[in-house]
Amino acid sequence: MANTLTTPTSGASEGYVNRRSKEMLDRFRGTRGKRQKMAEHLLEASQYQLMLVKFRKHLLANISFWVLLVMYIMATFADFFAPYGVVTRFSDLVYATPATIHIMDEQGNFHLPFIYDRVSKLNETTYTYSFVEDTSQRFSIQFFVHGEPYQLLGFIPMDIHLFGTAAKGPVFLMGADNLGRDVFSRIVFGARVSLFIGLGGVMISFFLGILLGGISGFFGGTVDLLIQRLIEFIISVPQIPLWMGLSAAIPINWNGIQKFLAITLILSLVGWTGLARVVRGKIISLREEDYVTAARISSASDMAIIFRHLLPGFTSYLIVSITISIPGMILGETTLSFLGLGITAPNVSWGALLQQAQDVTVLGHYPWLLYPCAAIILAVVLFNFLGDGLRDAADPYSR
Amino acid sequence: MLKFIVRRVLILIPLLVMVSIVAFVIIQLPPGNYVDNLIQNLELQGGSVNAAQKAALERQYGLNQPVLVQYFIWIGKIVLHGDFGNSFKYGRPVADLLGERIPRTIAISLAAMVVTWIVAIPIGILSALKRYTVWDYFFTFLSFLGLSIPAFLLALVLLFAVFTSTGYMTTGLFSPQYQDAPWSIAKFLDLMHNVWLPLVVLSVTGSAGLIRVLRASLLDELKKQYVTTARAKGLPEWKVILEYPIRIAINPIISTIGWMLPALVGGELVVSKVLNLPTVGPMMLDAVISQDMYLAGGFVLILCSLTIIGTLISDILLAWADPRIRLE
After folding, report:
1. Which chain B residue is nearest to residue A331, measuring alpha carbons?
2. Cα dist. B151→A173, A240, B231, B277, B307 in Å?
3. Is it the case that residue A23 has pLDDT exceeding 70?
4. Which of B37, B87, B153 to probe the A interface (max A CBs under 10 A)?
5. Model ipTM value
6. Strand partners for A121
7. Structural domains in chain B?
8. Distance (Å, whole) CA B258 – CA A233
């Protein structure tokens, strides 16, 4: 397993491990006792423990990891984190502006954070309706309020939301859309599709990539040639027309989950090539090692050699290339849904939400419809930073 | 060199065959065939078709044959007569529609590529020469951001920004008064007035990648001994840099055509939808949504084939520019 890489087998590699531990120790701050412990720990640390130590030093990647974790938790428990349901409509508050949160009222008295009630008013000069704050009505923002009932994770009945106000004055953190639905809540719900499609798509690509890349690298010869040509073909063909063509085959009457799976499949059918190349390259460099010959002599099957002996040798590289390919999947789903070929109403995803923002004149009047953009860019940038940090951590020769 | 070209061209043939198979599969994927659609259209207009007429129609279009035969009929018509079938949404031959839209998409993609070079080459060189300075960090950050923003988002945001600051809508390629006018300087200026936005949007992603590649390869070259030799011989610094390392570091510009071209063509499809350009994007999207599959398949076939041929040309150019590749 991973120990094959770090267990000292010759003088040179032992020296190398010691040097690595010392380098890391130099950067470790702490009391003498702690340093001593750390030194012992690092000496016998496995490849993964060394990776972890290095990764913890990469501040940006660490922050990205935790923020992403929070985003995934929010997406999983969207019912709890979103103040309102995904299709809950407030028909008086169509295109309501994002709420202004006050802590001081008209008389200058301080309160806990609250919002004013809003009423639609006709502007006498431009003859358009706009929302004005009605300072006579105050709604304080409370945490863990009882609101719309829902089923947490689909089976636990609950009605507690993270935050909200008394039923009459909804708090729209990011405004409302054309049907008076809360944009913030819809972004939280949309994260379910947009974030998990990245994971799902990567899992399928991972499977295809390891299988085809492994076969290609291990057996070589004609199979290798064929798979290499296939990969070259997929890389040299523009993805978006292929995605568009393939998504035309998704029946219109499929439900949200079926569409989700179909899109995941389409994205990963095109996306496995990068991983397959990594796997092939690594296997070619490892298959001539002595321990592989030893395994072959003890009549281990080909599959056992690939999966038990070769793959563990470069799992860290796989983790890195998986992390790097997630943003591509997220962008792919977003693009397809934005074009109307992916997730469609009543289901939401970040791309589907942006469909409303396609029209520039609408956007000119209601710019808060662009908020899903922020969510997309945030997720993609965080994944890029995370991948960068993991790459540095996995590379034993990086500074 | 000739041998190299012949070998590359021979590899091209199976790739093109594969593209045609993929396009055919895409045409076949949605439920129902061309005749079903035709009949549905007729029935919507109040007509009716009996079983015998349907069978006759299917025979006429070769739909009663096995799938493999259908494929050969389809590709045979394309190769021999340039007949891509009919688009039933527009009621016109697909070939006409392709001829109208594809050249515009190609032109915009190629122009975006040139813009990418103009932007990326100086920045990449600057980043490498002034490594670890404010400029380097600034451009590294920008290129990170550029890689993270999908083209359609950038188009949307820029369109919105231009609209709110100037009130001018940069959609379409021409203003209405120049739509059908013959070419003139005024029409050209009008085109420039509209076309800069898609070009900027399309070149951002490519530039971001290219800057990173260029910076890394120039940094590698600068460390080599011939640079030290040139300096030791007293060449002025600009000549040292321009004459030797840049000539080698610039190779990736040719080799990256291979991955830039597919990305550009794909990006153009999405951006043209947002900016409402009269190119392939909006029409192909329409075709896919209304399952006008001969049109959609035709677009897939032509776009993919052209991209592959473009990649081939870049391979040959690279071999011409860098003899080390020819020998492999």
Report:
1. B150
2. 27, 12, 43, 15, 19
3. no
4. B153
5. 0.77
6. A130
7. 94-321 (1.10.3720.10)
8. 11
